[in-house]
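Please decode residue identities from the backbone states below.
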């Protein structure tokens, strides 16, 4: 135990020898037990789901659509398990561990309450929002760009009874969307990136006739690999840990047959589909809040890229861009049906 005599003695020796003590690390968190899950569900009974997807893969569109159902609520960017600081930050210290697992406490029944606290906090955040909307099923959508399969494992430790929805988009369009998002927000731009932005403002032609790339080589390599890693790890871990409670879909299919894809997802979540939903989906697909936001933020750059469309890469990829992306992610494009082979 972190508050054992030996630990305290070690801290005292360090303090005397060096004038300071090294903070103790907490022990790794344990998954929730089935009994704890049932106890928590007595207080927070709503079914939960989590929408994952690499950034710029359509997670926001999917969240907007799924919450059209009268029973299903969704909100976004909680990042409980996908971006630091994550939900574990609530208990991720030796002090929190001492509080929630000390032997003298009669409240914890001899077990560290940290995972219970984590789930109770997330449950309350989500269910409070859902109740305000009169919904009975609730989920969060948070893009998962850096931690990949770990996000699924961390989610499963706290929500093994949840459902996972994973949306995939053509990685070539993903990195274009990410690139222009950075340009629009003027975020994470090196000197070469700023030179590209300046040239874009001067004229679009060199970037659409194959003369000049919007990318640096380093950007393509980094983001293509991230896309591949995310698909490999999330799908493998989702199927391994969640089985039939894991489902994936393609963003492009959502664009071409939105109601059919949403009907499949709502049935996956266990809710009936009523006659009003096809028109609601059609109306929602006709809007694009992100496009309006980007135009307001930086219209001189946003205007170069039609938002939410499939196949933007065909207009903007140079032969060098194709070669670099193909070397890293070509096989993944074939696996997900974006290409029949590597001859593109």
């Amino acid at each position: 135990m972190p508050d054992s005599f030996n630990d305290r003695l070690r801290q005292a020796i360090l303090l005397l020898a060096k004038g300071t003590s090294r903070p103790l690390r907490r022990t790794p968190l344990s998954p929730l037990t089935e009994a704890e899950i049932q106890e928590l569900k007595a207080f927070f009974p709503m079914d939960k789901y989590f929408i994952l997807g690499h950034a710029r893969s359509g997670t926001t569109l999917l969240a907007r659509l799924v919450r059209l159902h009268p029973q299903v609520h969704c909100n976004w960017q909680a990042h409980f398990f996908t971006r630091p600081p994550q939900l574990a930050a609530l208990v991720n210290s030796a002090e929190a561990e001492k509080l929630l697992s000390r032997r003298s406490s009669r409240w914890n029944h001899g077990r560290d309450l940290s995972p219970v606290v984590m789930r109770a906090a997330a449950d309350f955040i989500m269910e409070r929002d859902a109740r305000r909307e009169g919904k009975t099923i609730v989920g969060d959508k948070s893009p998962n760009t850096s931690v990949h399969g770990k996000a699924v494992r961390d989610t499963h430790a706290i929500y093994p009874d949840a459902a996972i929805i994973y949306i995939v988009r053509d990685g070539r369009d993903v990195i274009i969307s990410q690139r222009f998002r950075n340009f629009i927000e003027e975020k994470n731009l090196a000197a070469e990136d700023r030179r590209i932005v300046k040239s874009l403002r001067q004229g679009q032609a060199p970037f659409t006739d194959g003369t000049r790339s919007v990318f640096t080589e380093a950007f393509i390599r980094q983001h293509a690999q991230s896309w591949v890693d995310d698909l490999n790890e999330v799908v493998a871990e989702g199927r391994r840990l969640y089985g039939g409670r894991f489902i994936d879909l393609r963003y492009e299919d959502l664009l071409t047959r939105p109601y059919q894809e949403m009907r499949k997802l709502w049935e996956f979540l266990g809710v009936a589909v009523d006659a009003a939903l096809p028109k609601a989906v059609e109306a929602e697909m006709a809007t694009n809040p992100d496009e309006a936001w980007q135009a307001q933020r930086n219209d001189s750059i946003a205007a170069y890229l039609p938002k939410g469309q499939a196949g933007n890469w065909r207009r903007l990829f140079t032969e060098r861009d194709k070669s670099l992306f193909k070397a890293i992610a070509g096989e993944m494009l074939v696996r997900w049906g974006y290409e029949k082979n590597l001859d593109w």
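Observation: The longest strand covers residues 47-52.
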